[in-house]
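# step 3/5: fold
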Amino acid sequence: MPQPHARGEAFSPELPSIKRRKLAGEPCIAGLSGFSYLVLRSQKSLDCYAAISDNVCVMAKRQRMKSGAAHVVTISKRVGEREYRTHLLRRSYRDGDKVRNETLANLSHLGDEKVEVIRRALRGERLISFESDLEVTRSLPHGHVAAVLGMMRALDLERIIDRTPSRMRSLTLALICQRVLRAGSKAAYARMLDDTTLAEELGVVGADEDALYEALDYLGEEQDAIERRLAKRHLGDGTLLLYDVSSSYFEGKTCPLAARGYSRDERRGNLQIIYGLLCNRAGVPIATEVFQGSTVDHQTVERQIAKVKDRFGLERVVLISDRGMVTKANLNALGEAGIDWITALKAPQVKALRDDGLFPLSLFDQRNLAEIEHPEVYPAERLIVCRNPLLAAERARKRESLLRATAEKLEPIRERVGRGTLRGKAKIGLAVGKVYNHHKVGKHFEFDIQDDQFAFWRKEEQIAQEAALDGLYILRTSLPAEAMDAPEVVRSYKSLSKVERAFRTLKSLDLEIRPIHHRLEKRVRAHVFSCMLSYYLEYHLREAWKPLLFADEETPVAADPVAPATRSASALRKARTGRTEMGETVHSYQTLFKHLETLTRMKLTVAGVEGAEKISRPTPLQTRALELARRVPVT
């Protein structure tokens, strides 16, 4: 509050200090209420404030004034179209039972900006040294946290996890969000949470490794309920469900789920787990399930049938799966459950149909799609034959490349035998066995191995027969034509690429589902489920940010469903110019995330008082990215 000065005159005690700081050459800051400050840097401004303080002091000495607070009054007067503003320095005092005002000086010549600072100084707001009294004690990355939490709240993920707020729910959300921000182990999360504003925003500051493991256990216990809520939001009767499986290698030997099997990570000999993923047609993840590492793909299907019918309560759905899921038993189980399906034939089945003459290759001289029937082998099914010329050319090129690479590995063995440095059928056979099928085309070579000679050649007729089927694939479905025509069946089957994208993202540096170090079966299952929920968040962020990324905002629907997908005109323009429609720099998902990290929240110490916080000013791109992250894209 203002205090009396000299002979009872009242004015701000800060004004004399301005003069002292001005003489010392220090910049000053006029404080707003709390911890918001105005920086006074120019010498001209400081001269003005010092002069005013001198004038107030002189007037106080010349007059015997009753105690009263000095303040600035602004009077506006309009004459015609012009407005005149007068700034007066006044004091208020009490004369008996009346309050009177006395004008001390006219400040109009100083200008509005300078008068405003004088006004605030007279109110008692603090003036501090910019260089010595203001300190940034900590600066934390905040922009990417704001984006992830904005999307989390737009999706109402908190209520999907648990409708009741609790610390356990907050810890669970921290697990999910931290993986999107920066993937790592639970032990690493305990150290990383406080390196951004995430812990403060979720109220889990100081959470240790044990608390995060408790949250992981809690998430595992709630998995069924959470998946039901996701299914209720994103699925409905008659919907298309995408299902596929993948594998991830495992560290350690004590978990009962870890076993050797077919590795999609090309880590032969490593223990692994198998996990399946259910998505809707747009690619939104709905549910996941973990299986022992030795499980074969088709052995996972019956569990998904029970999940769809019993847990999700769906009466009519169409399950789309890869050809590896198909067995007669699975198709029968789907039929008994009233679930329609779309899948594909395996290569030997395609070859058998061709040998039976059901689709002569001349059929595709003018078209690339045809529908056939084979009621004796595939009763109550539709078979849709597709031929992609570009895929045919690529497979022919790849086959030839692999055949040449295999021949190059076999040629040194023939030279050694010719020089006599390698002799004997057994030794030659061992040498050939190490390399002949390295590129998976050994079946296309014929060998003649003797004690002192070795020859090899291609099986040209067999290669020609295989090449005749290049680019050909056959889809099979239980759906009648009136429910879905042939082109739409093809488009629906191609939607499986969205599940493959999910697996790539889960295994990439974005989410890092592997390597898996957990020992308890329940924690391995909970770990995979938490990764799926992190992908659920990232999926929607990628969709929301499409206008800022090198991505199709609306993927064009091709008239020819068999032809390779093409990019939209807007996506091609972004790739060509590197600019969005609004002129912003186009980013990848990763670089946009890095750009958001540069938006920080600072903790300030002002004149020795801690606790003030300030968020740095966002760039236009950051502002738009944060706005988009608060919207839920239609999925």
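# step 4/5: annotate
Residues 1-48, 56-66 have pLDDT under 50 and may be disordered.
# step 5/5: archive (pending)
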